[in-house]
Design goal:
single chain, 2 domains, four-stranded antiparallel β-sheet
Length: 570
């Protein structure tokens, strides 16, 4: 007659198994977030990665649940399973980073080997295919992890029934209940805790829970296992590996990510909202100490400014709107947490400037760089933005501009000019800041004779997006909406949109000026006026381009399609 555990023993087993299922469900959800977060944030891949990853993992979990029927011994199978999940969960991000780094540097290695000129860098054919595979490798690991995670519930269910020695009527309901609750707790842990730490540490901590689950099974069900010494050895080796990944994984990952940039990476920081990367290119000895190197700043892998030509971009962003406005007493800047647009605004002698930016950690770096980055980079940042964020006339609101605008309206605020210096609409959350709804509320904040200026992506690389921004601003009932453009070497052809609430058009106001009120390093009045001229038939397809209303994601989709086409993805 087979041995039957006592009622108390079965109760302990049930409690431990249900708790284990809840913990593992939380781990599974965190793995989904980790993989999609790495691809979507660090690598700058489309935000739809998140939704695709979750969908693929759910399908894979279903396949894994079917495959679990092939496991002969649920006890041995579960321990093996947790070893596999722990290994893949801890190492997947590092492996993906390594694959992408290798495919990025391989063309350069071959070019150097055969002394090929820069314009003959091998990037097509097999190199393009390898790069495509590497960029999409998060999906592969998501499918594999999802498959193994899907096997957990059937195995736990079989283990419970074997312990009880009978079929349990509510077995699956109990386990699925623990699974759903555990997944919810895992999501909360991700948002509250793991999102704010290094991604490699988050992966290692999550994997350690899988390893602990396996260790619990070894101790609790020692008599049920056949490969006991092997399990113990593998757990010890994997525990050491996870410890190494926790301590050094972020360093290794940063080293591999650094290979994606042409210049030396001098600072990397992950905030709650984005990945910040500073690179530096040394130019050699110069009489001007500050010009011996070029500083580039990236958000989620996308270039935001280069110290060699950011003054061109900011001249065009600031000069037209302030030169054409009747007064400069009270200015609003949305975005621009780097303080570079603010630096130029302060040249016009405003009495008050309000700056709204969501990312507090980004603001801290540019406001007090000496406290957050190395001394050399801190000196460069202070030289670039002239410590503008520390100016007593500046009020910094570290919040979501979409919501903060309502508070400014309720407070009865009115601004003489508004400057919108946001990243491109490459994310659904940014898309809402380019909508008719948002622009209409900004119009209410603008004084009657004031102007608003908006960075509007590239009229060459993302032409439809550029035109859509102009049409969207026009749909917000601004009296005059005009667009202008010029070449910014680091970005290529770039564009801006400017509008007046009432009175003369922005260009008509600029035409009345013989020179700009404030001297800019690059821009003068003649160059500025010519920037409003576009090539023949540039707006010929304007009627077929939609405006961006709240909830439509029109601009986001236009922008994504344009850049995918430019990069050869479509």
């Amino acid at each position: 007659m087979p041995f039957m555990p006592s009622k108390n023993s079965r109760l302990i087993d049930d409690t431990l198994l249900i708790l284990t299922m809840a913990v593992l469900a939380g781990c599974g959800l965190i793995y989904e977030y980790l993989l999609s977060h790495y691809a979507g944030r660090v690598l700058g891949v489309m935000e739809s990665t998140i939704y695709t990853m979750i969908g693929l993992m759910i399908v894979s979990m279903g396949l894994g649940a079917f495959a679990a029927r092939k496991v002969r011994c649920a006890f041995n199978g579960f321990v093996y399973l947790e070893l596999l999940i722990a290994f893949l969960g801890a190492s997947a991000i590092l492996i993906i980073g390594g694959l992408i780094a290798i495919t990025q540097i391989l063309p350069h290695i071959i070019a150097d080997m055969f002394a090929l000129p820069p314009d003959m860098l091998p990037k097509g054919g097999v190199f393009k295919q390898l790069s495509f595979i590497a960029i999409n490798s998060p999906y592969f690991f998501g499918v594999i992890l999802g498959f193994f995670i899907g096997m957990e519930i059937p195995l736990i269910a079989r283990i419970r029934e074997e312990i009880h020695g009978q079929h349990l009527a509510n077995n699956l309901g109990t386990i699925y209940g623990a699974d759903y609750i555990g997944a919810g707790i895992g999501a909360a842990i991700w948002v509250v805790f793991l999102l704010s730490i290094d991604i490699s540490k988050a992966a290692a901590l999550t994997a350690s829970l899988n390893l602990i689950a396996g260790a619990f099974f070894i101790l609790r069900y020692w008599h049920k296992l056949t490969w006991r010494k092997t399990f113990i050895s593998l757990h010890l080796v994997l525990a050491l590996l996870i410890l190494l990944m926790f301590n050094y994984g972020n360093h290794w990952l940063n080293q591999m990510n650094s290979l994606l940039y042409l210049d030396k990476v001098v600072h990397v920081q992950k905030t709650n909202y984005q990945q910040l990367t500073f690179t530096e290119r040394y130019l050699g000895v110069s009489d001007d100490e500050q010009q011996t190197s070029i500083i580039n700043f990236y958000l989620n892998g996308r270039l935001q400014f280069s110290s060699i030509d950011e003054h061109i971009y900011h001249d065009y962003l600031v000069a037209p709107v302030l030169a054409g406005s009747a007064r400069h007493d009270n200015i609003l800047i949305i975005g621009g947490g780097d303080g570079l647009a603010l630096r130029d605004v302060l040249k016009y002698g405003p009495k008050k400037v309000t700056l709204i930016d969501l990312d507090s950690e980004l603001i801290n770096i540019f406001k007090t760089p000496d406290q957050h980055v190395n001394a050399n980079l801190a000196r460069k940042i202070s030289y670039m933005n002239k410590n503008s964020l520390q100016d007593k006339r500046v009020t910094i609101l570290r919040s979501d501009a979409f919501l903060t605008v309502n508070k400014l309206l309720k407070a009865g605020q009115v601004f003489d000019a508004i400057i919108v210096d946001l990243p491109d609409p490459s994310h659904p959350d940014l898309n809402k800041l380019y909508t008719v709804n948002f622009y209409a509320r900004l119009k209410q904040l603008l004084s009657g004779d004031g102007l608003i200026a908006i960075q509007s992506t590239s009229p060459y690389h993302a032409k439809n997006s550029f035109i859509s921004i102009g049409k969207t601003l026009r749909a917000a009932n601004f009296a005059h909406v005009q667009q202008y453009h010029d070449n910014v070497p680091s970005f290529g052809e770039w564009g801006w949109t400017i509008a007046s609430k009432r009175g003369k058009s922005p260009l008509a106001r600029l035409n009345n000026l013989k020179q700009l009120p404030v001297k800019h390093s690059w821009l003068n009045i003649d160059i500025l006026k010519s920037a409003f001229i576009f090539p023949n038939d540039f707006y010929i397809n304007e009627e077929n381009i939609d405006i961006n209303i709240l909830g439509s994601h029109t601009l986001y989709q236009l922008h994504q399609n344009a850049w995918q086409t430019q990069q050869g993805i479509n």
